[in-house]
Structure formats: structure tokens, C-alpha cells
Amino acid sequence: MLELRRRQFITLLGGAAAAWPLVARAQHPVTPVVGFMTSLGQNERPNLRDAFRRGLSEAGFVEGRNVAFEYRFAEGQADRLPALAADLVSRNVAVIVATGGGASALAAKAATTTIPVVFTTAGDPVQQGFVASLNRPGGNLTGISWFGAQVSGKGLGLLHELIPNVAVVALLASPNLPESGRMISDAQEATRNFGQQLLVLNASTPREINAAFATLRQQRAGALYVGGDPFFTSRRQQIVALATRDAIPDMYANREFVVEGGLMSYGNDVTDPYREAGLYVGRILKGDNPANLPVLQSTKFEFVINLQTARALGIEVPNSLQLLADEVIE
User: Fold this and answer.
1) Please, are residues 283 and 55 in contact by the beta-carbon 8 Å criterion?
2) Which residue has the higher pLDDT, 267 or 61?
3) Which sign, positive or negative, has the C-alpha torsion 157, 308, 305, 52?
């Protein structure tokens, strides 16, 4: 009888020991890992990552508490994106966030058909092949678009209002940006309506940016429009310095250039789309299917003028234009 009780006790003890890890796992669920990849550099526009984390926090997920991150930065080199996406897939992250332009989303789409991908893009995600439709994406990708490629016409219109007697306008574009085609076509239509010639200059390296400005001088362009490529944003100090050296009135798609000393910018305020991306990642982590999450479209724009730069160029900005601006830098 004593031996029987001893065997029963050992059996119960063994069963409890086997069950304990299961209980422990139930009490401490595995923390989901979000892969965040971007065309930008690690130190570029940290406010956008902050906006994303804010949205994710609103959805109930806080980094270091119940969600972890794997960050991947292409540092302005679009050709690095496919390897970064493949690396995140190999780590079996729960969601991939593809930001910093359409090239990032294309790399993520090519890398996986199963891991959910939330993108941010300035282009048309249907035309770019990211999703089947805006309302019903239909695959493993969804996200936020702000159709930034279509704002070049408006930006050139503001530039024309400020300096109407310019015959040749240079446009700096990136051949690596999927949205560039639409941006160029809109810019061509705008300048044609203004009776201007558009000089398209392509650049994807710092040296090519220097060469583009050399061509700009040779062709006697009287104004410059710079598209919203993440690579250009990473090289904004170089671009603004060259525009200042050549004393050319410049219009940009991102306000960061104007803060750096550029003349004007007109484009989307992209902090809110990044916050919306965080909210979408939170919904997916809670079980929502990206195929059923419609692509959101952001329509918030901002117009910024640097009056100090205008004065240095000898340009008087009329009050009517200043009143249109969301921000005027003195």
C-alpha cells in the first residue's frame, strides 16, 4: 500500500511538472515582432516613426511592453530594399511595415505572400500593383496612400504665381521611385498650361545630383521643382546648398527642405498617414485580415514658405500667398 501511494505521488508530481510550462506559456504569451523597413536612413525623419508608434499605442501595443520591433533602414539606397525585406521574412515577423516610398512596398510584396504588409505610399497603390482595389485589397497588403505624385502640378502653380516670368523650369526626379512617372506627367501638363518648358533631370546618387545642377545652369532654368523621393530628402542639405549657390527659386514636395533653407514646399503632411499605419498594424495583430482592410487615402496638405530665403533671392512674397501658407518661416 505504501509503495502504491509513493507511485501515485510521483505520477502526480510528474504530471504537474509537465503541465507547468503550458501554464507558464499561457500566462506569458509570445510578444509579436513588427518588421519596420524604410528607404530612409536611421536618423532621417524620426518624427514619422514616432507617429507610427503613436498609432500603434492607440491600438493597444507599446514597444517594449507587448510588441517588439525589427528596424531595417535602406539609407536612401533603394537597391538594398529587397534584401531587407527578405531578412524580415526569414525572421518570421508578424507584420511588415513598408515605408519611405513605393519601392519599399514593392520589395515587401515580392518577398512574401503570407506575412501581412502595411505600406505607406505617395502613389496609386492599384496602378503600382500593390492591391487589387482600394476598398478590397484582396491579398496580404494594405496601407495608406496620399497620392503625392499628383501634387507637383499644384506646387508648380504656386511657384508660377510667385515668379510668373520663368521660361524654363527644371524638375529633379528619381528613376528609382515608382511614383515618378505620374509626377512628371502632371508637371508637364502644368508647365504646358503656363507656357513654360519643363526640363526633367534624373538623379539617384549624390554625384548625379551635382550633374543635374550643372545641366540646370547650362540650360538656364529659372526655377526648380524637386519631387518627394526619400533619397532626395536624405540629401536635402546638398540640394538646398546647390540651389542657394545658384540662386534659383526652388519648390519642394516636403517641408524639411524649406526648414533647411529652401524657398517653398507644397505636399502632404505625412505624419498622420504613419499614425494610421500604426493603427492598421494594431488591428492586424488583433486578428484583422489585411485583405479586408481598405487602403486609406490621406488628403491633408501643407504649404510652407521661407521668407528669409525669398529675401535673399530678391523675391517679394505677396500677402495673398502668405495667407495661403500653413507655415511661414521668417
Assistant:
1) no
2) 61
3) positive
Residues composing the chain: 330
Give the residue carrying C-alpha cell 502504491.
4
Q: Is the pTM of this model over 0.70?
A: yes
Beta-carbon contacts of 200 under 8 Å, excluding residues fewer than 6 positions away, are: 170, 171, 173, 184
Q: Which of 186, 148, 162 is nearest to 266 (CA)?
A: 148
For position 252, what pLDDT does the model report? 96
Helix, strand, or coil here: 46?
helix
Query: What's the rounded Cα separation, in Å, for the pair 192 and 49?
Result: 38
Torsion-angle region of 287 (φ positive above 0: left; ψ -120 to 50: alpha; else: beta) = left
Q: Where are the alpha helices (DSSP H) in 75-205?
A: 81-90, 102-111, 152-162, 180-193
- 270: Cβ contacts below 8 Å, ≥ 6 apart: 48, 120, 146, 148, 298
Residue 106 Cα distances to 77, 228, 259, 313, angstroms:
14, 17, 30, 40
Around Cβ 236, how many Cβ atoms within 10 Å? 20
Q: Which letter, b or e, does each residue of 119-130 get, where b requires 16 or more Cβ atoms within 10 Å of its Cβ?
A: bbbbbbbeebeb
What domains can you pick out in the chain, each with its CATH number? 33-146+270-299 (3.40.50.2300), 149-268+302-329 (3.40.50.2300)
Q: In this predicted structure, what is the pLDDT of residue 78? A: 84
- Residue 147 has a pLDDT of 67
DSSP-assigned beta bridge partners for residue 327: 304
Provide the pLDDT confidence category of residue 105 given band limits of 50, 70 and 90.
very high
Task: Give the C-alpha separation, 6 to 85, whole Å.
Answer: 57
Convert the pLDDT of each residue in 128-138 to its tens digit: 889 999 999 99
Q: Which of 161-165, 227-231, 304-308, 325-329 has the lowest mean pLDDT?
A: 227-231
Quote the CA–CA distance of 174 and 75 in Å, as a whole number. Answer: 15
